[in-house]
Write a structure and sequence with these properties.
Blueprint lengths: L1 E6 L2 H16 L3 E6 L10 H7 L6 E2 L7 H19 L3 E5 L3 H12 L4 E4 L11 H12 L2 E4 L2 H9 L6 E3 L3 H16 L2 H4 L7 E5 L3 H4 L2 H14 L4 E5 L2 H9 L3 H7 L1 E3 L4 H10 L2 E4 L2 H9 L4 E3 L7 H5 L3 E3 L4 H9 L16 H13 L1
């Protein structure tokens, strides 16, 4: 039994690390395709290295272009690989251009698609990620949902066949890699940080970085926050480029400790010890919850609405006043229900795949 896995971005490398291990444990052969969507070493190769992911058999090197062109080029290359490898199914993750390209390529050959992290919805179709996840879910034969909310979202769209509530593989990753991060990472010492004495910020979505009004508003709030607490910002290449273009980079470097993008282990430790995480990343909202750290989401909506209902996540968008207010708030978080399964989602996924396609 052979599975073809398509990955291309940081969150997918993390998910693949635990699922690939589970596939191997169940005797399933996996051929991995790296599309190259994240081509920077700190955004790609470093993750493969530190998470112990075997080097992808195919690296397409396709990145830094418009969404439509990127998906079409990836799709054509993946179709060639399907012809060569002849897998029994295609495994895709999340909501990137790589995800949809893999699903579309599989569709041409009537190759079954299994979608890890199916059913997530932000209900904002201006986000390319929302379009990617909706189209991928329509194509998929197996839909591995991380939460009951995701199952309900699919049900509203009439998708019920092949839907499996597995829990979240990111929980598996934290269970596996947090002890490794705590024993190996020296990032706190390098940056002279102590628990709860800093705010961790990540910002990379085009809706924020490419919009001068939104980006300026967010950073004005961060500059104010920095008067009260140290701010650490691992700087995404896109964010750096836009800060420079909008004349904000020099001021940002005065108020905020800007660092190069960090690996998964360092990022886990930075999140775990922060007083609050401010982010526009979907995955980090959930990771912050799993690590029991308050989160401030720099978007107008979230796929992880259960973290908001539980009181651990606040949607602030680009509203400078709200960012400042919530960033300085000392309100206590409420109870911490188990929202994302039992930490064995990857094994459940491997078992379902083996039962279905072996």
């Amino acid at each position: 039994m052979k599975v073809l896995t398509v990955v291309g971005a940081r969150p997918q490398f993390i998910k693949a690390a635990v699922v690939s291990a589970a596939l191997k444990k169940r005797g399933i052969k996996e051929v991995m395709v790296h599309t190259g969507q994240h081509y920077d070493f700190n955004m790609s190769a470093l993750f493969f290295k530190e998470l112990g992911i075997r080097k992808a058999r195919y690296n397409l090197g396709i990145g830094a272009m418009s969404r439509k062109i990127m998906i079409n080029r990836m799709r054509a290359k993946i179709e060639e690989i399907i012809r060569i490898e002849k897998p029994v199914c295609m495994l895709v993750y999340g909501d990137t251009n790589s995800t949809l390209a893999g699903a579309l390529a599989a569709g041409k050959f009537h190759l079954p698609v299994a979608h890890v992290e199916a059913g997530l919805r932000s209900y904002n179709k201006k986000m390319p990620e929302e379009l990617n996840r909706i189209e991928t879910d329509k194509i998929s034969e197996l839909l591995f949902c991380p939460t009951g909310t995701a199952v309900k979202n699919l049900g509203k769209e009439g998708i019920k066949k092949g839907v499996k509530l597995t829990g979240d593989v990111m929980y598996d990753a934290i269970v596996r890699f947090l002890p490794v991060a705590q024993s190996r990472s020296i990032i706190l010492r390098q940056l002279a940080l102590k628990k709860n004495n800093y705010i961790l910020v990540t910002l990379h979505r085009a809706e924020n970085t490419d919009n001068e009004i939104r980006l300026t508003s967010i950073f004005r709030a961060l500059f104010k926050l920095a008067e009260y607490k140290k701010i650490i910002l691992p700087l995404h290449p896109r964010t750096k480029k836009c800060l420079l273009a909008f004349g904000l980079l020099e001021e940002a470097s005065k108020h905020i400790q800007l660092v190069e993008p960090v690996g998964y282990l360092d990022n886990l430790l930075l999140m775990k010890n922060a007083s609050i995480v401010c982010t526009d990343s979907g995955g980090m909202q959930k990771e912050a919850y799993l690590l029991k750290v308050r989160c401030l989401t720099l978007r107008e909506e979230t796929e992880w609405e259960e973290t908001v209902k539980a009181g651990w996540n606040v949607i602030a968008g680009a509203d400078a006043k709200r960012i400042l207010k919530e960033g300085l708030s000392r309100k206590k978080t409420g109870r911490h229900p188990e929202l994302y399964g039992d930490g064995h989602a990857s094994l459940k996924i491997a078992e379902i795949l083996k039962e279905k396609y072996s």
